[in-house]
Amino acid sequence: MKPIQFLKTGLLALALSAMIGCGSGSQTDSNAPAEPAKEGASPSASAGGKKLKIGISIPAADHGWTAGVKYWAEQEMKKYPDVEFVYQTAESPDKQIASLESMGAKQVDGIVILATESSPVTPAAKKLKEQGVFIVNVDRGFTEPIADIFLAGDNKKFGQISAEFMAKKLGGKGKILVLEGIPCTVNTDRVEAAKAVFAKFPDIKILDSQSGMWNQQKAFDVMQTMLVKHKEFDAVWAQDDDMALGVEKAMKEAGVTNVWILGGAGMKDIIKRVMEKDPMYPANVTYPPSMIAEGIKVAVETLTKATPDELKNWKPKNIDIKIDLVEAANAKDFYFPDSIY
Same structural domain for residues 148 and 295? Predict the structure, then answer.
């Protein structure tokens, strides 16, 4: 079985070529094993001649998807033994802000940031940008156009195709519950796009919408509260597989049956259930945590190959990660049992 390429080799190569006039790229599948580092392939210096120092700032692994992010970040850094990485995780915006300030004091050349939350982290990123640090922003966007490169999945499409699937399966009518994630651009794009689809179906009623913070325990707690208020509903738009598992646990404990859940991000356990036609999980939407590896790769290659003038006159770039709807018919193409996530 051939792994699906979430970020096509040609797309990344083209993007890098357009950015710096040279260089190539390779895709990192979110579920396939990381490729070993190639001897002699690790750049050690920027175009200016000094050893590269790159900061990596990501959320702590407090749920499955961020555990995947941590794994793929660590795997990618191993490919560049001659680059000095300043690598830190943070379990809150305050700790991430302190981490970014520390990286700035260490005079990093660039920073790859996956924000804990968009709004509070933006000013810290902006300060680094003003200091001349090259910023690669992965997944959760800033609230201002600060990043030199923004690499993320198409979260508007994520919300759209997941809601379209739900509306179709419901036959255009039904009662649903919505779980939102951490306050950030990712959640905003997904929820707004989904609600725009649901608005086209007047017979689909959103009974409640609350944040589960992309966390299984939080989603379990939120769902317990929802179940007290709402005795009859048809489906749950959970947008995230960790939250979906929390929702499922709450429903089982409450004895709720004949309700299905639509999560997202391609957790292997959920994809397996889609593949096996489990009625609880009729579909899923991909959102690979390996995108952090692409962010690190792009940062290293750009800072290695771009000239000082190119960096000085840099124009912001976006790289999009492909989003796919997973159903029973194609789930085998997205199921990787050895995946960390």
Answer: yes
> What angle in degrees, to the nearest 10, is found between the helix axes of 9-20 and 291-305?
30
Residues 184 and 276 in one domain: yes
33 and 125 in a single domain? The answer is yes
User: What percent of the chain stands above pLDDT 90?
Assistant: 82
Domains of the chain: total: 2
Q: Residues near 315 by Cβ (< 8 Å), separated by ≥ 6?
A: none
Q: What DSSP line would sit under 8-26, residue for residue?
A: -HHHHHHHHHHHHS-----
Q: Cβ-count burial of 229 within 10 angstroms (0-12 exposed, 13-18 middle, 19+ buried)?
A: exposed
DSSP designation for 52: P
Cα gap 284→281, rounded to integer Å: 8
260 lies in which domain range? Answer: 155-285
C-alpha count within 13 angstroms, C-beta hemisphere, residue 185: 21
Whether residue 333 is contained in a domain is answered as no
Average pLDDT, the chain: 88
Spatial neighbors of 95 by CB under 8 A, at least 6 apart, are 116
* Joined tokens for residue 121: 């982290």
pLDDT at 261 over 80: yes
Find out whether 274 and 326 touch, Cβ atoms under 8 Å.
yes
**141 assigned to some structural domain:** yes
Q: For the chain, what's the residue count?
A: 341
Closest CA to 333 of 12, 29, 7: 29
